[in-house]
Amino acid sequence: MTTTAHSQPRAAKSRIGRPAAASIAGASSPASKGRTAAPASAPAALSAIERVRLARNPSRPQTLDYVEHLLRDFFEIHGDRRFADDGAIVAGLGYFGRRAVAIVGHQRGRSTQERIRRNFGKPHPEGYRKAARMYDLAGRMGLPLVTFIDTQGAEPGLGAEERGQAEAIARSTETCLNLGVPNIAVIVGEGGSGGAIAIATANRVLMLEHAIYSVISPEGAASILWRDTSKAEDAATNMKITAEDLMRFGIIDEIIPEPVGGAHRDPPAAIAATGAAIERVLAEVKAQDRETVRRSRRDKFLNIGRSIA
User: Fold this and answer.
1) Is the pLDDT reported for residue 277 higher than 50?
2) Among 242, 219, 214, 223, which Cα is nearest to 232's?
3) Contact partners, residue 178, CB within 8 Å, separation at least 6
């Protein structure tokens, strides 16, 4: 096992500017839980497929951007202690304000070389086992867990299947459900299939305004239902994958407003709004005991779909 400590900002990892107010407390707070703050200027309503394109924009902030701007003294862990390290999953410890937290997130990469090294944000089994290592560590140390979701899905290749991809995803999901400390999931881009839910089984699920969350990509659904990927727009509309739809169904708990045009237009503002939402939710759940944390998380997921007419 190897570890890497980051106490200084990593300019090479990020191409976005630092927020004007570096402290999280100085960031503007979004609306109260279960609501969405109104954007500065209301743009025309976007279609589902337009949200998909925004969610996939390569200039949107990624996990390491959030880490760089919201955390200090980040200490990253590597490897799953079984096979290898997986660059598609970032995991580590750091300070969020004065609070020590555990972090897990998908990282797609930006340059061609980095995207290949990180497998375009599609984790292998060793990535999910690395995530489970961090869950266990957070539970033992009593640290809240924050996860950032941005993946098209888990790696579907032969090697991943041979190394137990389905088991790794299931184990990661189970470990999240049994975690005795509060965890917060933030869907910052594309939340695809089991590759997303494996690190998004949280007490609170937050979602950026133009992110998407679905059981399959619109193109994948169109190829299965109509054997025609050109019908991806119809699939995106009918799958109800936007933040507003998922809020209505009770799948997510809060929508974090994005800058007009999307998070890629003003990454520092998007990161600041996300940090403010995380800080507020952490304050709400920090006093809960371990049994209450587990029970509320299980009840949340068991209740999904029960109230849909």
Assistant:
1) yes
2) 219
3) 294
| Secondary structure of residue 4 in the 3-state scheme | strand
Q: Name the CATH architecture for the domain at 3-11+44-302.
A: Alpha-Beta Complex (3.90)
Q: Decide if 290 contacts 240 (C-beta within 8 A).
A: no
The β-bridge relationship of strands 72-77 and 145-151 is unpaired
Q: What percent of the chain has pLDDT over 90?
A: 78
For 184-237, the pLDDT digits (tens) are 999 999 999 889 999 999 999 999 999 999 999 999 999 999 999 899 999 999
Binning pLDDT at 50, 70 and 90, where does residue 26 land?
very low
| 178 vs 213: CA distance, rounded Å | 23
| Contacts with 222 (C-beta within 8 Å, 6 or more apart), sequence order | 228, 229, 230, 231, 232, 234, 235
> What is the spatial distance between Cα 175 and Cα 171, in angstroms, rounded to a whole number?
6
Amino acid identity, position 68: E
Q: Give the whole-angstrom CA distance, residue 232 versus residue 52.
A: 10
What's the CA gap between 211 and 191, in Å, rounded?
8
User: Which one-letter amino acid corresponds to residue 148?
Assistant: F
Q: What is the pTM of this model?
A: 0.85
Nearest to 147 by CA among 129, 135, 155: 135
Helix (H, G, I), strand (E, B) or coil at 153: coil
Q: Which residues make beta-bridge pairs with 94?
A: 101
